[in-house]
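# nightly structure sweep
# worker-07 picked up a monomer target from the shared queue
# config: single-sequence mode, recycle default, output format = structure tokens
# input follows
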Amino acid sequence: MNVCSVKNALRLQQREARDSLDRLTRQEASAVASRHAIEAWEQLRIDRNGDRLTVFSYLSFGSEISTTPFIEHCWSRGDRVLAPRVDPVTRTMELRQMGQHGDIVPGMWNIPEPAPTCEKWVPEMWSEIDWVVVPGLAFDRHGGRIGYGGGYYDRFTVQVEAQKCDNGNAGPLYVSLLLPGQLQEQVPMEPGDLRVDVLFTPEGPIHCDITKSEKTNDE
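# output follows
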């Protein structure tokens, strides 16, 4: 079985497991995982001497883990919150800045997204982003990930990497919030797949060993 088939099978398995969780379990897991993320976010604020921070986060829907508690915390602290929006004409994704729940509307495929009136963030502004909260169905301890929106997040990463070479910026930290059962022993990865730096689980944060994972793939 090739990598693509393995990934598709795991994607289906994880979706079914996630959909089978009751609403209360998802809410509690979301709240606790968000709490761990908020603690790390506030530590970053201390490290930056109290500066206003910027996060690019997907807007969860359906039976996904909820990013709402984390987003609401960012708003309460005056941080800038960005989310992807699908352009209805070109069908491409773009980043928009939201300031409140009223800025969130049903988008294409009924997925929540920023309203078209929200400020657009062009690639030249992406170097200001501190965190990228990445969606996913399955993860492993080496940053491996299978999830939604992969194409857009991958292209975003390529652009950010190019900016890092141009201006020496360290780039954003890539993080994810997990539901129970999403952490796998190993997630199959293909060249160019986006890896995650930190996983926030209900049990606590996991700092992924991306270097070790990349070395294993090269071998």
